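ok so heres the complex, two chains, lmk if somethin looks off
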Amino acid sequence: MSLLAGTLLIANGLRQGGFRGWPQVLLGACAAWRAYSGSCRVKQALTHSPFERAFEQDRGWDSSKVISRSITIGKPREEVFAFCRNPANLGALVPWVDTIEQTGERTYRWVAHGPRDKTLHCDLEQSEPKEGRKLHWLAAPGTRFKHDIQMHFSDAPTGRGTQIKIIVACQPSFGAAGYALAAAISKFSDKALLYLLRSVKQQLETGEVITNRIRPHGEKDLLFIHPPSSVASASTDPSPTPLNGGTA
Amino acid sequence: MRALTWQGPNKLQVETVDDPSILSPRDAIVRVTLSSVCGSDLHLLGGYVPTMRAGDIIGHEFMGEVVETGSAITQFKKGDRVVTVSILGCGECEHCQRADFSCCDNSNPNPYATDIAYGQPACGIIGYSHAFGGFAGSHATYIRVPFADTNLFTVPEGVSDEQAVFVSDAVPTGFFAADNASIQPGDTVAVWGCGGVGLMAISSAYLLGAERVIAIDRFPDRLRLAEEKAGAIALNYEATDVHAALLELTGGRGPDRCIDCVGMEAHGTEVDYYYDKTKQMMRLHTERGTVLRQSIRACRKGGTVSVVGVYGGVLDKFPMGAIVNKSLTLRSGQQPGQRYVTRLFDYIRNGQLDPSYLLTHPMGLEQSVEGYAMFKDKRENCLRAVFRPE
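and the predicted structre for the whole thing:
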């Protein structure tokens, strides 16, 4: 199909010539190249990865877009795990997160400022952690877009601290179009995930997140809203060191 | 406060800007007493390093007096006379723990550009573009120094300001270049570039056991300094076939160690220089690799090429074949000065090293625009213009 379409476009482009013809030649050459190479970037972008297929099978989802990032932090696993299990610590490191409210024993509402002064929120429920090994959050029941977020902790080789692998999965709607949209958005969320991990590393290794400001303009001030005392007393979370601006 | 700011390619301006303040417990504020130009600033000035923004304060080689410290600072107090290594280390990551401070994971608040360009983000550097952190530079009355306990060093008694200021960058960069070259007693070392860093690399090579050092440049005053102050054999590449001369001076073997202290704006007389220059002017690539090619070609089989000249992007016509087939070792990096400062102060106090002659043009900060012009154009034999903020 690509070869046929490419040949027709090239032939028509050459016949027409000029500003209308040469773009057709170019487009036809791309199509012919696609036929020759056997690989199509568009098709690749719409194809679920083997990991995504396995994830869908495991969770019973009809579709998923998964991103994953890793980092090594030069601190003991217990310390890294204790820091990461407290959402207030992570939220303080994400620039656009304004508040995190503990709405239940294991449920949290993350509120962020979106484009055009819109406020976005996401309710996440924390599963029972595997102590020192895994943290797991799921979108709370009834949430419009399903998310599954896992953080895996392991010892880095030769005593270099702790490796964190974070896997974020979402369930896009509307079939292939939804998957394509999620894939496009994931280009940005993948970077955001990387920068979050780097901030966690900086905070844990140096006690601060480096800044190049001359003066403290626009200092971020995350608000962690404490749960009612009955819920707080039921919480199993330890109390790691609060961050700047945090009230955890 | 007053500061020298970059306004665009070849446009500098002294203006009034906000004073810095302590933003983190590990910060210190330093009142700058001396701040030197550096050859690597010329890459910023010429617009060859992207991610500069109008209003950025430049300058990264400086010393001063501590005027304020964050609550976590334990090694310094108000009034301490200090020098700063501007290639910033956090002191805590695995690279800093190995004394590879210039590979620091945590000192660059803008990792995006170098992450894409280099595969992993580079460390932060004071006053050296937003790709390297966007930190305000030292050509100013005051400067905020992050991770001060790691990056500040007290200047000991017996070391003058004029000596100490260059322990911020030129001396450790030159020493790092020689150290990276793995110099063995009896080696012949060739050093390309006789600016401040090159001259310090020559002296460092002798300190590390070189028998002879050959200095290559085109400016007679710099070659004279290489001979008289650093004890090198001088070669003017505009008057000499450098490759042939290096072979003649080494019995046909080539220098054991070659050091590139020039970097991305190398000049030359051969066709590759004009090829590089044309492509650079057309913004088709960033580097002029004449010196790197020459040093790789001249180096003896099994020798070492050490690169501290600044390169920022991708280099065309890189002679990988010579590296492979002559079994060369290529080593490089930004200087991890924190590793060397104490040792370098000892050399200075013992009289084995005196970098003060690099300071040829002391002047006030208000005259710094003219200082850069003199430095760039090599007027009045300007080796280093050093500013003293009022």
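quick notes: Chain A touches chain B through 21 residues (CB under 8 Å). thats all i got rn
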